[in-house]
Specification:
Distance between the termini: 72 Å
Largest sheet: 6 strands, antiparallel
Helix content: 10-25%
Structural class: alpha+beta
Strand order of the largest sheet: 2-1-5-4-3-6
Mean pLDDT: 82
Strand content: 25-35%
Length: 217
């Protein structure tokens, strides 16, 4: 597991790459620190709590995504680097479009951990070399958010590519996954019902409540 003081990185080729990775790691820590500051203790922040100025160094790699089914999220807001990686506007697309087809099932399972845990999710990704495409490493970090209704169905994330993108689209295999459960984050519960004076008494449905077909001649 990684924490605020030491986070895992990817293997690099030379000292110049090491310096670049060190700078990216600092930006990722700052990105997570802004989300952490919005937690107000141990709770999961709301979408409205996030200030774009707090994640400015990685704003071009940042996104907000919505959970639309277990293991499936759709991009609602996306920075320019995500458009560059895919070679098109990605808003409204599933986040899994960046993941190699063979790894999408595993990716979906980790998304379940992100929202149902809830948990912080971080992945080391790599894209193979090809015609006009240099080998490319990337880091994906996803942090859970509450919607305006209070349920944990949004995520603040960033997908940071480490190097030239080359010819798009670029899709990534998962090299490493880290899941950090959040202690003390309360799950959203539906409000309790209460009796209202003068209200109708509700009863369990019975056979007489079922709709009946009637033959009309």
């Amino acid at each position: 597991m990684w924490d605020d003081h030491k986070e895992t990185g990817e293997l690099t080729a030379d000292s110049h790459d090491v310096k670049a990775e060190t700078g990216i790691e600092a930006q990722l820590r700052a990105f997570r620190a802004h989300w952490q500051a919005c937690r107000h203790g141990h709770d999961v922040p709301r979408r409205a709590d996030i200030d774009p100025r707090g994640i400015e160094p990685l704003i071009s790699s940042a996104f907000i995504a919505e959970r639309i089914a277990p293991g499936v999220v759709r991009l609602r807001v996306a920075g320019m680097q995500l458009n560059d990686l895919m070679g098109m506007e990605v808003r409204g697309m599933p986040l899994a479009c960046f993941i190699a087809p063979g790894d999408r099932d595993a990716f979906g399972l980790r998304l379940v951990d992100l929202f149902d845990g809830p948990a912080i999710l971080r992945m080391a990704l790599h894209s193979r070399r090809g015609l006009g495409r240099p080998a490319l490493l990337a880091t994906l970090m996803m942090l859970p958010l509450r919607s305006d209704l209070g349920d944990i169905s949004r995520t603040l994330g960033c997908l940071v590519a480490h190097g030239p993108i080359g010819r798009s689209p670029r899709r990534f295999a998962i090299a490493q996954t880290e899941v950090l459960p959040l202690d003390g984050a309360a799950r959203h519960r539906a409000p309790m019902l209460r009796a209202v004076a003068g209200g109708a008494v509700r009863r369990a449905p019975g056979p007489r409540d079922r709709a009946h077909l009637r033959l009309v001649t």
